[in-house]
Amino acid sequence: xxxxxxxxxxxxxxxxxxxxxxxxxxxxxxxxxxxxxxxxxxxxxxxxxxxxxxxxxxxxxxxxxxxxxxxxxxxxxxxxxxxxxxxxxxxxxxxxxxxxxxxxxxxxxxxxxxxxxxxxxxxxxxxxxxxxxxxxxxxxxxxxxxxxxxxxxxxxxxxxxxxxxxxxxxxxxxxxxxxxxxxxxxxxxxxxxxxxxxxxxxxxxxxxxxxxxxxxxxxxxxxxxxxxxxxxxxxxxxxxxxxxxxxxxxxxxxxxxxxxxxxxxxxxxxxxxxxxxxxxxxxxxxxxxxxxxxxxxxxxxxxxxxxxxxxxxxxxxxxxxxxxxxxxxxxxxxxxxxxxxxxxxxxxxxxxxxxxxxxxxxxxxxxxxxxxxxxxxxxxxxxxxxxxxxxxxxxxxxxxxxxxxxxxxxxxxxxxxxxxxxxxxxxxxxxxxxxxxxxxxxxxxxxxxxxxxxxxxxxxxxxxxxxxxxxxxxxxxxxxxxxxxxxxxxx
Length: 491
Known about the structure:
By secondary structure, this protein is of the alpha+beta class. It has helices at residues 41-49, 52-69, 97-121, 126-129, 135-139, 187-200, 202-208, 216-226, 249-259, 315-321, 338-341, 344-352, 369-377, 403-415; strands spanning 6-7, 22-23, 72-74, 83-85, 93-95, 161-168, 174-180, 237-240, 263-264, 269-272, 275-280, 283-286, 289-292, 325-327, 364-365, 382-386, 395-397, 420-424, 430-435, 438-447, 449-452, 456-458, 463-467, 481-484, 486-488. A four-stranded antiparallel β-sheet has the order 7-6-21-22, sandwiched between helices. A four-stranded parallel β-sheet has the order 9-8-13-14. The chain has a four-stranded antiparallel β-sheet with strand order 15-18-16-17, covered by helices on one side. Helix 2 (52-69) crosses helix 6 (187-200), helix 3 packs across helix 12 (344-352) and helix 6 packs across helix 7.
């Protein structure tokens, strides 16, 4: 579909579809002629056979399931109370088998290259010496950790868990919007979405032939075991959480429970003779792998932030000596710095001698004088992002912005150009969503989860995030977004 095309259901369709319109974006459900794409035909017909009242009943059943399970997230900027039930859309996103296989190959290529990049910059730094990536861009990243220079990690795996955000361009191709390598979140919502979908659409799910993803937590556990010192099969693994007030605490408890490992906070751990132990009622228990869900700054107050009460004094020294593994490794954030992102195609070519299978979105570096001038002149057309922010914060969407907001970003960019990049405003693809008794189109992205122990593996599906507000391109839950189940077909 070309950017200026639009699709609408055939005139004979049910009134359920009367508000369904897609302008200037790729329509996941409908082909340009208005007919459903092959993978959506069965869902399309099923919706024609159901009344809005029946669909509303199923949506309410799904919402109650989320409520009873306590599936929430936190909005720190909301002064009216932060805890909210995670918004869920009833209708699945469907991806054809062949299309998914191409995505999988591209993501494995990407994580392989990024692991090699991280090992290199903390050891020989060949890629910097060869001027493929500017050394000042790496060394000025707030996520670059000089303390990691010369530290070897098991199997060279710096990134054990990745959540890479993909978008579909108006021409139908998938592209990488950004990589999330530090403490990627959302896998619990992916799994609970699937649980709920099986209950509200059991026959449709069974007839479709959907690849399973329920084994994610066991695959994650296997990847973590692979990284244990000495690759011990009986490794003791814990999930380190900042605690109950963290926005992703539901996910921490959910994953720890399904993996059958202890959920701990920093106060539950101690370091003795350069080894990490967990306090238990039966005494101290040695810890081999820590799946950490806290940022580098808070891991060890003796090395990083001195005021941190979330980490474990002495943990970094134990980590550096190889008696315990941290996943993901300290310092991985430099590779998901949005300024470094622009160089990932060159990183892939440098280490793998291959062209990237998944393209990047065109990116302007505000640290570069000429590119900065272009960005400042075209703010109304671009999306501007702070390189170290996430969750939709620190971002300007030019076409939807006010003059005051653009003036503020001019000031911010001029004061700290290294902290900002810009990209063209892309009309994300649209999926059908059940909203207010009708099926309407909303913009979506996709976050697949890649696991890397001894080798990379990818769960078939991921978290499809939805911009539930009409016309919005922001899919983050903290900014009014929700999610839906993602079906990857077996054939």
